[in-house]
Amino acid sequence: MSEKRILIASLLKPINDTRMYEKLGLSLSKLKDTHVYVCGFKAPLPAASPGNLSFQPFFSFKRLSMGRVKAQLRFYRLLEEIKPDVLIACTHELLLPCYAYRRKHKVKLIYDVQENYALNLLKQNNYPPLLKQALALGVRSIEKWISPKIHHFLLAERSYADELLFLENRYTVLENKYKPSVSYTSPATPVMIKEKPLRLLYSGTIGEEYGIFEAIALAEKLFQVNNTTTFTIIGYCANKGTLHEIKQRIKEKGYIRLVGGDKLVPHEQIIEEINGSNVGLLPYQPNDSTFRCIPTKLYEYMAHALPILVQQNPLWHSIVKHHQAGISVDFNNIDEQDLTTTLRQTLFYTSSTPENIFWRTEEDKLLQVFHQMNQ
């Protein structure tokens, strides 16, 4: 039997991206007689990857530049070179070159829907009103136009099944559950903070919609209650204006530190910070683009038994309550004295680390999709 070639690609995600490489890539590398290629933005190559998995650190350009357009042409030439049997597009921006390639070659096209891109453009404040409407319309038009040619959709959120009407019944939900490293060990539970200094953590994408300024405000309040409080912000911020405002806000506040900001941070470094913290913050502000999504960091925090402060939301509240993982609060209306007392008196993770938050359940579903494709 000849070796099958699977190409997983994203325009902006780094080649060591958690979902693209650690989850999809490593899971698919377990298929017999298969070689997996991961194509993405230039980043350090992961160590000790399997022999049947190769990297194409193909993209390197400024986010707002013509390089972003030229990259799609370069990507098409890469497709002609590798000649994949299965092509997984992890962003809407690669759908057009994938479609062009599919018209000329026998290949099964899979769209890994990591976000509801059109809804994000409409509801988040990254562009002027008219521009974001035009961009959202363009993205949705491309998705609808190409959807009949897509063999299968992978959905990072259950809510997308209701929001994206072009999916029909050709989809599988693969949530962004936690993929533990080889060195991972189950944390000790139950967890109680008691009189320990509060070590607050905000990790992942840094943005206004994700509540970064509310998180900073909370850290400032808790520091006034107890000056042993520290706060770490770790992740990447794509908005230069937001990043500048953050730096101004935390300047001369030694108890707050920023890791990353203008550059991507390796996932292992984020996990190290999770293990060194005792309160994880999820201060997402109410927004239609995130209200029905489960943040990846929620799974990460629970996998490491990190107590969580989560913005009030019925979906998130049900998860943290069921697993005794944290407390739902309104980040815009917090009594810091009461919160400090509650954090120190609450026993978290009384039933150990939840079993249903790990990627292995999603890996089984992913491999089943490919087994069915080969039948």
3D structure, described in words:
It comes from Pontibacter locisalis. By secondary structure, the protein is of the alpha/beta class. The protein folds into 2 domains: 189 residues, 3-Layer(aba) Sandwich (Rossmann fold), CATH 3.40.50.2000; 147 residues, 3-Layer(aba) Sandwich (Rossmann fold). It is built from 13 helices and 13 strands. α7 links the parallel β8 and β9. α2 packs parallel to α3. It starts with a strand and ends with a helix. The model has no long low-confidence stretch (mean pLDDT 92).
Summarize this structure as a short list of keywords or feature phrases:
375 residues, alpha/beta, Rossmann fold, 2 domains, 7-stranded parallel sheet, 6-stranded parallel sheet, 13 helices, 38% helix, globular
The structural domain count equals 2
Q: Count of helical segments?
A: 13
Helix content: 25-40%
Provide the CATH top-level class of the largest domain. Alpha Beta
Q: What order do the SSEs take from the amino end to the carboxyl end, as H and E?
A: EHEEHEHEHHEHEEHEHEHEHEHEHH
* CATH homologous superfamily descriptor of the largest domain: Glycogen Phosphorylase B
Radius of gyration from the CA trace?
Answer: 21 Å
CATH topology of the largest domain: Rossmann fold
Would you tell me the structural class of the helices and strands?
alpha/beta
Unreliable spans: none
Give the CA-based shape. Answer: globular
Largest beta-sheet characterization = 7 strands, parallel
The CATH architecture classification of the largest domain is: 3-Layer(aba) Sandwich
- β-sheet strand percentage: 15-25%
Oligomer: single chain
The strand line-up of the biggest sheet is 3-2-1-4-5-6-7
Number of strands: 13
State the end-to-end distance.
14 Å
Keywords: Glycosyltransferase, Transferase
InterPro entries: Glyco_trans_1
Protein name: Glycosyltransferase
EC number: 2.4.-.-
